[in-house]
Amino acid sequence: MAKNNTNTKQGFTIIEVVLVLAIAGLIFLMVFVALPALQRSQRDTARRNDMSRVDTSLVQYQTNNNTKSNNLPGAGWWKGKSSFEGTDDCSSTDSACMFVRDYMNSGAAEMQKKNEFEDPEGVPYSVLITDNWAKQSEGGAGTLGVITPGEGGENSKLIEKEGGYTIGGLNPFSEHVVYIVPGGRCEGEVVKQSQKRHFAVLYRLEGAGVYCIDDQ
Questions:
Q1: DSSP helix/strand/coil, 83
Q2: How far apart, in Å, are the Cα atoms of 50 and each of 26, 35, 44, 187?
Q3: Hey, how many other C-beta atoms are within 10 angstroms of the C-beta on 63?
Q4: How does pLDDT run across 91-148, given as a tens digit for each residue?
């Protein structure tokens, strides 16, 4: 009497193998597409946190300079550097540089001190501080001064929008410019006029849009 062979093993069919490979490829494609977007989102979250630090530091600046009429840094432009190598890097009239050195760094007034105020991509932030918008309007001007960075001005600059200003230009993210507008307040992505002791901070995000935070 013949015995049934119970040890017979069946392999995967070609269709099953192709199906598994197709599913694996689809999962890989989804990860490949989603990962860069997730990384951009994480970097933009870090940038928002950095702008919150600027906001907090400006409040601290006001506390430390409460005898001044505006109580905020004066207008200025500073192209970010990786370190503060000497006193010439921050002259007494270079308000943007001194603000970064003294308020956005821990003990950065020391010689040869590394600049810790960097974009998540490792590029030092540049800072542009406009005229105090509210103070300018007291003289009848009503417009901002110093709204274009001293270098690469067409790439990133403040442009008029909806009765205020926002960040525009040919490639506004490329310059990593933090815009500080004394006398301003945020309405979405647009900064509008407020009282001279208030301020707004704007930064162009990598993913899309402008992040605006103020003290109000």
A1: strand
A2: 37, 23, 10, 20
A3: 9
A4: 777 899 989 988 998 764 554 578 889 999 999 999 999 988 887 655 544 567 777 8
